[in-house]
Amino acid sequence: RTADRSATDIPVSQYACQRRTTLNNRNNLFTNALKILAENAEFCENEGRNLAFARASSILKSLPYRVTKMDDLQGIPSLGEHSKKVIKEILEDGNCGEVEKLIQNERYQTLKRFTSIFGVGVKTADKWYREGLRTLHELKASKIKLTKEQEAGLLYYEDLIVPVTMAEADSIRKIVEEAVHRFLPAAVVKLTGGFRRGKESGHDVDLLITHQDEGKEQGLLHQVINWMAVQGMILYDDITDNRDQKWKTKEPELFDHFAKCYLIFKLQKDMVNVVDLNTSGDHDSLAVNEAKEMGLGGQAGTCEHAGCASVKDKDWKAIRVDLVVAPFSQYAYALLGWTGSRLFERDLRRYAKHFKHMSLSSHSLFDNEQKRFLMAATEEEIFAHLGLDYIPPQERNA
Ligand code: 8DG
Ligand code: MN
Ligand code: MN
User: Fold this and answer.
1) Spatial distance between the Cα atoms of 100 and 338, rounded to a whole number of angstroms
2) Does the residue 332 lie in any domain?
3) 390 and 268 fall within a common domain
4) Residue 151: which of 126, 108, 118 has the closest Cα?
5) Is any ligand 1 atom within 6 A of the Cβ of residue 340?
6) Sign of the Cα pseudo-torsion (47, 50, 56, 61, in order)
7) How many CB atoms lie within 10 A of CB 263?
8) Which of 87, 214, 326, 352 is deepest in the core (most CB within 10 A)?
9) For the segment 330-386, what is each residue's pLDDT rounded down to a tens digit?
10) What's the whole-model pTM score?
11) 194 lines ligand 1 (CB under 6 A)
């Protein structure tokens, strides 16, 4: 089949939940550039611009062909003038001047560096930048007061910037499941997030926990965390119940009230079945290179700084893990909400509101006209309530 597109092709929806987006992205060249522009808009706290570039990037990811000429974009929604200009430039010159300049830009580089630390958001990174800080060394040397979370983020930085592999995610799932079963033998521990969408690596491991007998799951999270802490599996933990302020301000739409725990997990390397722990694609080159420059990352890394975990041949890896506990009656909604991608979730909610007058969250679906909650035991039922074709997790990589 040729890569050509014709007017008879099925129209592309502006809603990510009406598109099938696999990991087979034929338009990497464009989406990588748009992602950088989206990221920079985020660093400038320009939400509208951030979303516009994110949407443009997402729509290109869903196309079953590679864009080779501007004509290929006929009838494709969500592409603003700016995004089109970027695509045109890449088609003509192989790259985009604005993006090339941006990746050399000191503020962009610094904010990217600082926000790659666990616990550091744009506001904090920008404050540090304005105070004249540029590198992690300068940050550590400064007298700036860090939160407990940021301290842990810096301490395990070199590990946390290395992508988590599927094999690692799977062994952590099994370890957590074993811990959970000590207290509730029939509980379910499900791998969600990017790994459920078929990604081979990710920035963390997202685990959703539930139990058939609703109510039994109460108190479980504390028990499990305590037990794992005693086993020496926990480097950092932050349990929240329903005061998840971080997410409320950052992404109010994705905010939920489940008991959850943001962890830094200590994974013994011999617990992982597959050999290659240190290599993986999809590296964040800026952050990884920086770690190497600092003598932090890579194989032979040691750091003179007193606060750094000295790393020569250590037999474990620090890994970010999100644990979420959902009551059984909300499980399908929680599963859908925690599988992502972010943009897919966002568009599901937007679609529900605009076309169905319904409010979707990770807890429930509320019909604003019938004034009632719609129950669902499976994700398929939720899509059916919304009048949408079912999109499996592997096709939610919007
Ligand atoms: P990655 O980790 O592989 O980089 O990608 P990901 O798995 O898609 O991203 P993620 O940041 O781990 O998020 C996965 C989904 O979980 C996403 O759809 C949003 C949701 N999510 C969090 N944290 C929170 C939270 O605190 N509250 C709510 N409601 N949702 C959250 O990750
Ligand atoms: Mn994740
Ligand atoms: Mn996560």
Assistant:
1) 34
2) no
3) no
4) 118
5) yes
6) negative
7) 28
8) 326
9) 999 999 999 999 999 999 999 999 999 999 999 999 999 999 999 999 999 999 999
10) 0.90
11) yes
Q: Which of 18, 12, 124 lies closest to 76, judged by CA?
A: 12
ipTM confidence:
0.96
The alpha-helical segments, DSSP class H, found in the chain are 28-43, 47-62, 81-93, 97-104, 106-115, 122-130, 136-141, 148-155, 157-160, 166-183, 193-196, 220-230, 245-250, 285-293, 331-339, 342-356, 379-385
Considering the domain boundaries, does residue 331 fall inside one? no
Q: Above 50 in pLDDT, residue 207?
A: yes
Structural domain boundaries enclosing 198: 164-325
Residue 397 Cβ contacting ligand 1 at under 6 Å: no
Residue from 21, 199, 206, 239 to probe ligand 1 pocket by mutation (most atoms less than 8 Å from CB):
206
Does the beta carbon of 297 lie inside 6 Å of ligand 1?
Answer: no
Q: Is 159 a catalytic residue?
A: no
Active-site residue flag, 322: yes
Q: Which of 238, 244, 284, 322 is catalytic?
A: 322
Coil vs helix vs strand at 346:
helix
Q: Kindly report the CA angle at 258 between 253 and 260, in degrees rounded to 5?
A: 110
Which of 342, 363, 395, 397, when mutated, tests ligand 1's pocket best, judged by the most ligand atoms within 8 Å of its CB?
Answer: 342
The count of domains in the chain is: 4
Residue 260 DSSP label: E
Say if CB 396 and CB 340 are below 8 A apart.
yes
165 lines ligand 1 (CB under 6 A): no
CB-CB contact of 54 with 343 (8 Å): yes
| The one catalytic residue among 204, 237, 256, 347 | 204
CA 292 to chain centre: 24
